[in-house]
Amino acid sequence: MASSWRGASISPKAFGIPCGAYLPLMACLYVGHKLWVWIAAVMIIVCFGVMAHIGWTLNVCWNKFLGFMRGGRIVSRPWWYRNRFRD
């Protein structure tokens, strides 16, 4: 029997695109009704749809950005090493 918690962390999707990608379109309803704003919102949604299709969700991109900013090498010691061995 499958666990009921298996799908607890899956993000909701509408038409295969994460629902967070539709936020620019919702912002268009409140910001303005210019044509370029609608086109930009639709292009952002399409971009998020393509990224979600290849597996790069917003969380994955954010974590990759943080890893890039952090760098390839961590120069600090873990908390248990600092507490046990004083430098």
Automatic annotation (TrEMBL):
Keywords: Membrane, Plasmid, Transmembrane, Transmembrane helix
InterPro entries on file: IcmT-like (IPR047756)
Bilayer-crossing regions: 38-62
NCBIfam families: IcmT_TraK
Record's protein name: IcmT/TraK family protein
Higher taxonomy: Bacteria, Pseudomonadati, Pseudomonadota, Gammaproteobacteria, Pseudomonadales
